Amino acid sequence: MAPRTKSQPDDLHCMRHSLAHVLAQAVLKLWPGTKISIGPPIDSGCYYDFLFQEPISDEDLKMIEKEMRSIINRGQTFAVETFSVNDSIKYWKKREEPFKVELVEDLKAQGEKEVTHYRSLDCKGNEVFEDLCAGGHVQDLKEVPADSFKVMSVAGAYWRGDEHREQLTRIYVAAFRTRQELDEYLKMLEEGRKRDHRKLGKEMDLFVFSDMVGPGLPLWTPKGTVIADEVERLARETEEAGGYLRVRTPHIAKGKLYEQTGHLAHYRESMFPPMQLDGEDEYYLKPMNCPHHHQIFASQPRSYRDLPMRLAEYGHCYRYEDSGALFGLMRVRSLSMNDAHIYCTEEQFEEEFIAVANMYLKYFKIFGIEKYVMRLSLHNPAGFGKKYVDAPELWVKTEEMVRNAMKKTGCACTEVDDEAAFYGPKIDVEVWSAIGREFTLATNQVDFDIPGKVGLKYTDADGSEKVPLCIHRAPLGTHERFIGFLIEHFAGHFPLWLAPVQAALLPVAAAHEECARGVEAKLREKGMRVTFLDAAESLGKRIRFGEQQRIPYLLVLGDKEKECAGVAVRNVKTKQQVEVSLSEFISKTAQDIAQRSLTHSIG
């Protein structure tokens, strides 16, 4: 395992760390000759990456879990031993563990003189396993409840995350303090499988992928497009109220633009290859909107009176993601981003940054996001000139500016080292869905570098020229990722204002179709999105179809409704059915839609 650099770990971290050793020990006993690499603790347990001589499958997991429990029941302790890096390299070479050798050689190149190995000792003090590790273990494996972990799955992983290196087998283990916590986690995973946006997206006909179009390039169906349009409408209204100006930019640009901003140097691997046109410069598909927005700002002389200037766009961008990393709507190559860039003075920065945070909070309330945290991503001085702009004083200054602004928002905020953007610190927003699944949703970034690099300037009150700060913000992230989150968050039962189809008309029999068509026309006049399910199929089958499509309201019309000018309204989510007048139905649904209510008034 790679040496740990964090502060003293907690008990759960130590338990998970210890289980990673047990996992590796069990695998080596069952498959001698397997090469070991790394096995860190993670938020839900731990994993370990192996190079097997022959492939293993999910069917082997029970056998691994049984062997792990056997190891735990026998009890083991951990003993630490310090090696010089040279002796450690010799040790791992002798045992023919190339990945461990590479890890220690890297530490040596970074200037490390010593590393620690942890030996697992049985009850008689005999060594049964040894690993490169920085520590953080239980005193004795008998402290680990044998029923509080489960070997979960097998996945592929490239060594060092490099697709050109060895492909390893990653085994995941879920581990918690108690059996109850494990059961709750497994229940959440099962619910997550039911809510999987890929599954529901197909069932509800929201988006598709085509081999003819290409991987990671989603095609939005009419129903999915409704959701995207409603989300964008919300953003447009919110941004207009916040003083944003809308712009539109092309999908391609010259490579010189991205070279000037530094994106080619820092993001080339995530960009599609250049296009060479006859007699012209190289062009690239747009990987982000900011270079284009900078050109709009620079197109005219700007004064301090023009600031803050907030340019917003749901701009379409393209990122080259490795095919193995693509995942439904969560990881795509074509993305429509809720982007904006705020050009402001240093004195205006705090107010603007806080306004963006407040916009996040408004969206959280609208979508029923109750748990969230904002992560302040900071720089690492070791990355100056490579990963980060080499401007130590500006880094310290802007990080403190963001830190002070976040304190005034009252939002939960944690700090994370070495995850900033190359041009400045940023806030990454982590949210949890209704069932507790975590998503990285949005970002709010400070740019103290690129505006000056591309020649952006404004004339201050004293006549001097100054460079504006730039805030990059995307509160709703991208259509793709955000809608994927919403599908899982709502389990497909969207609030009425967001539902692709808001109501379905179900005449009981052919004799009721004319009446139902009249109701349909009145609802359409009020702007409702409705569909007509005629009596060609049985009523029960049509109700099941409406429920499967998560249409919020199913309006059943028979003799009684025809005579009373009412409708029998079935709330698909609650399964409740009530009789109401048509005027009451229209009034209440119109109010729910206008207010973007999370719940429906009827049923």
Task: Detail the topology: elements first, then pairings.
Layout: H1 11-30, E1 35-36, E2 41-42, E3 45-51, H2 61-74, E4 77-84, H3 85-94, H4 98-109, E5 114-121, E6 127-132, E7 149-158, E8 167-175, H5 179-195, H6 197-203, E9 207-208, E10 219-220, H7 222-241, E11 245-246, E12 252-254, H8 255-261, H9 263-267, E13 275-276, E14 282-285, H10 290-298, E15 309-318, E16 334-344, H11 346-366, E17 371-377, H12 392-409, E18 413-416, E19 426-432, E20 438-447, H13 450-453, E21 458-459, E22 465-466, E23 469-474, H14 479-490, E24 503-507, H15 513-525, E25 530-532, H16 539-548, E26 553-557, H17 559-564, E27 566-571, E28 577-581, H18 582-595
Parallel strand pairs: 11-15, 17-18, 24-25, 24-26
Antiparallel strand pairs: 1-3, 2-3, 3-8, 4-5, 5-6, 7-8, 9-10, 12-14, 13-14, 15-16, 16-23, 17-19, 19-20, 20-23, 21-22, 26-27, 27-28
Helix pairs in contact: 1-2, 3-4, 6-14, 11-12
Account of the protein in words:
By secondary structure, the chain is of the alpha+beta class. The protein has 3 domains: 11-187, Threonyl-trna Synthetase, Chain A, domain 2 (Threonyl-tRNA Synthetase, Chain A, domain 2), CATH 3.30.980; 201-487, BirA Bifunctional Protein, domain 2, CATH 3.30.930.10; 503-595, Anticodon-binding domain (Rossmann fold, 3-Layer(aba) Sandwich). The protein is 36% helix and 25% strand. The strands form 7 sheets. An 8-stranded mixed sheet has the order 11-15-16-23-20-19-17-18, with helices on both faces. Strands 1, 2, 3, 7 and 8 form a 5-stranded antiparallel sheet that branches. Strands 25-24-26-27-28 form a 5-stranded mixed sheet, sandwiched between helices. Strand 21 and strand 22 form a beta hairpin. It is globular. The two termini are 56 Å apart. The model is unreliable at 1-8 (pLDDT under 50).
